[in-house]
Amino acid sequence: MLKDKKILLGVCGSVSFYKAYELVSNLKKLGADVKVMLSDGALKFCNPLSFEAITNHPVLCTGNEDWQKKISHIEYAKVDLILIAPASVNTINSLASGVCSSIFMQTLIASNAPMIIAPAANNKMLEHFSTVKNLDFLKKNGVKVVEPVTKMLACKDIGKGGLADISNILYEVKKAFFNQIFKGKKVIITGGATTEKIDDVRAITNHSSGKMSKALSDAFFFLGADVMLISSVKYENLPYKSCEFKNTDELLSLCKAECKDSDLLVMCVAVSDYICKQNYDFKLKKSELGKEWSLELKQNIDVLSSLKDFKCKKIGFKLEYDKNSAYNNAKNMLIDKNLDAVCLNIIEKENSFGSEKNKINFITKEKDTLLEIDTKENIAIKIANLASEL
Q1: Which CATH number is 6-176 given?
Q2: Where does the chain bind CTP (predicted)?
Q3: Is 140 assigned a ligand-binding role in the annotation?
């Protein structure tokens, strides 16, 4: 996702400096070309050689500038993105004031690249009026701040000063390289499988993993949307809002509440076609049921049809096994449920349940767009871009 993107990671003096190694590793796995510069405070915690070993680039820091070898604040400022993590209070306040008291600060001021900072410091230092004012000033001037987390800090104080989770920092880095075509738009994505109760220990469900809906939520977030993921799968440390459901009734209730002010609904959830005609508030005993047991079922409610009156754009997902009837079924779904698009997903070996890849035919009333087999992350970005044209 970050292939050949040039990223400068600035590491400040903080006890969380060691997490910068994990950041470098993850950025490189995503294809980025990473250089590192260390503040004078960071030099008290670590040796430049450790970062040089994992980046394959010289580290820029006090005492290491070499203009002949292009190790300078001017050369290192020529990047696609600057990430400061962890960012100290001293760096935050110096950056806001334009203070060039070190090679570290000179590099920041010399660059016009987008900038992301992830503060990590004592909460009282971050809550000081000068820091609060300067963080607000930086935000207003386009700097993205990844908010610190509340935890017990190294000084034993409990407060909002811990470095944000690495995954959340990476979300913001990825987002910085996307066109924010959904900025100001609210997008609802549903995913996972419904679980319909039989008795206290048994239920009807399906094999949906929720991976496609998670990839879609990430994609719309990268493109600037205000995302709400409604999923049966629980996720931690997401940069956007999410809520959970178990059964179809809970799913429909959440959808109705969220769709009131949304711009787009992407219904990727796998809803059970049938539910029990009667469910039991106790465990059915095998000894009483006997060797054969007939479970009486009835058709489940149609969630998408129940949301017809909401004015937001709607995209449905159609899962099929039979290639011969799949396309006609998807076209009928498009018309019958008054959708703006249908994502036809024909299950094959390479895109089976729980796989990391998918293949989608994006169908609207005007045209079809075949998205050939690819990772679910890449397919999701392509779907989101097509959705922007609806």
Answers
A1: 3.40.50.1950
A2: 273, 283, 317, 337
A3: no
Q: Does 376 count as an annotated binding residue?
A: no
Nearest-angstrom CA–CA distance, 300 and 320: 19
Considering the entire predicted model, what is its pTM? 0.90
Q: Is-cis flag, bond preceding 239, omega within 30? A: no
- What CATH number was assigned to the domain covering residues 186-388? 3.40.50.10300
Q: Do 6-176 and 186-388 come out as alike in CATH topology?
A: yes
Q: Where are the domains of the chain?
A: 6-176, 186-388
133-184 per-position pLDDT tens digit = 999 999 999 999 999 987 667 767 777 878 999 999 999 999 999 999 999 9
Identify the sign of the CA torsion 273, 277, 283, 289.
negative
Catalytic center residues: 155
Rounded to the nearest 10°, the torsion over CA 192, 176, 173, 128 is -110
Give the span between the Cα atoms of 299 and 276, in whole angstroms. 9
Q: Is 17 annotated as a binding residue?
A: no
pLDDT in tens, 172-203: 999 999 999 999 999 999 999 999 999 888 89
